[in-house]
Automatic annotation (TrEMBL):
Pathway entry: Porphyrin-containing compound metabolism; protoheme biosynthesis; protoheme from protoporphyrin-IX: step 1/1
GO terms for biological process, alphabetical: heme biosynthetic process
Summary of the function given for this chain in its UniProt record: Catalyzes the ferrous insertion into protoporphyrin IX.
MF (Gene Ontology): ferrochelatase activity; metal ion binding
UniProt name for this protein: Ferrochelatase
Enzyme class label: lyase
PROSITE patterns reported for this sequence: FERROCHELATASE
């Protein structure tokens, strides 16, 4: 009798999983699909910290009906043959990371929409996953993004009898490999197009009161932006940090990207390079809001050209950085 030969091995792909989680996106660039996606997104208490008595009537009767058709047109303008840019780029990144990490099952899930976190976790469970490393694709931690991913993973695992060993990467805002990749991205853009008058680093915004409540997000954006500017040899006055994608009427983190671009153009800045270091993959907020809308804002105020520097997406430097980051968090686990 050979009692141990058929015993399940605790190593090998399928036993250890790396789950890359991005924000999510509609299934199609239509008003209906956008409404479903926005409804799930904007019901998350981590995203909108308002009492539901106040928020739900506003959301259901005003925001979803009015916003969905308009936002669907914006999505249609950037939609790719394979689908929404956010999902396409995130999948390409995961595919490349799977090559770099052959002993781990690399999967993609979206916090809102599809492929959902519960669906992907259940597939991994069926494949015998024993160890799970979760990497939210947000370099800077915010309760509204990374925190919410942890909620969704925990909610699904709460229903499992046998939960996996679990690790979670809360942020990587000063990771050396990630900064190397960003620096190389900007330098490649400069080699191709020359340097603009200024470099603007635009991050997704948050309501100001989230910062007041203790969210470390803005401090992490500032630290990362300063580190990148230092690596690029930029002096004060040659670069700026701003926040984009305001939503609603309350105050968000300042300075605002659109207002800053207007002011810069009026002050005589003719050309600006814009990079969005908080976005691992290109999406509506970079391809449409920055590269199209804010380009119009800048030129309408007298600027000549806004040159958007695309996100790291599945660039080899990004793949190498995130694979090394994952590898460092996998240490001590058998694979
Ligand atoms: C309502 C509040 C919002 C908060 C808080 C918020 C934080 C936040 N979001 C991202 C990253 C992305 N957001 C994207 C789209 C998007 N964001 C909001 C609202 C909040 N975001 C909305 C309503 C939308 C949808 C588009 C719209 O209606 O204007 C995206 C792009 C998704 C895509 O499909 O391309 C990303 C990515 C971060 C990093 C963040 C906090 C730090
Ligand atoms: Fe509701
Ligand atoms: Fe957002």
């Amino acid at each position: 009798m050979k009692p141990y030969l058929d015993a399940p091995t605790s190593a090998g792909p399928g036993r250890t999983a790396l789950l890359l989680v991005n924000l999510g996106t509609p299934d199609a660039p239509t008003a209906g699909a956008v409404k479903r996606y926005l409804s799930q997104f904007l019901h998350d208490h981590r995203v909108v910290e308002l009492t539901r008595w106040l928020w739900c009537p506003l959301l259901h009767f005003i925001i979803l009906p009015l916003r969905s058709p308009r936002v669907a047109r914006n999505y249609a303008s950037i939609w790719m043959d394979e689908g929404s840019p956010l999902l396409v780029h995130t999948r390409n990144l995961a595919r490349a990371m799977q090559h770099a990490l052959p002993d781990v099952s690399v999967r993609v899930a979206m916090r809102y929409g599809n492929p959902s976190i519960p669906d992907v976790l259940r597939e991994l469970q069926a494949e015998g996953m024993q160890r799970l490393l979760v990497l939210p694709l947000y370099p800077q931690y915010s309760a509204s993004t990374s925190g919410s991913v942890l909620d969704a993973v925990g909610k699904e695992l709460a229903g499992w009898r046998r939960t996996p060993d679990l690790r979670f990467i809360a942020d990587y805002h000063l990771d050396g490999g990630w900064l190397d990749a960003l620096e190389a991205r900007v330098r490649a853009h400069w080699d191709l197009h020359g340097r603009a008058d200024q470099l603007l680093m635009s991050f997704h915004g948050l309501p100001k009161r989230y910062e007041t409540a203790g969210d470390p997000y803005p401090r992490q954006c500032e630290a990362g932006a300063r580190a990148l500017a230092g690596r690029l040899g930029l002096a004060e006055g040659e670069w700026r940090l701003t926040y984009q994608s305001r939503f609603g009427r309350e105050e968000w983190l300042q300075p605002y990207t659109d207002k800053t671009l207007e002011a810069m153009a009026r002050e005589g800045v003719m050309t600006v390079d814009v990079i969005c270091p908080g976005f691992a993959a290109d999406c509506l907020e970079t391809l449409e809001e920055i590269a199209v809308e804010n380009d119009q804002v800048f030129r309408a105020a007298g600027g000549q050209a806004l040159r958007y520097i695309s996100a790291l997406n599945d660039e080899p430097g990004h793949v190498a950085a995130l694979s090394a980051l994952a590898r460092s968090h996998l240490q001590g686990w058998p694979h």
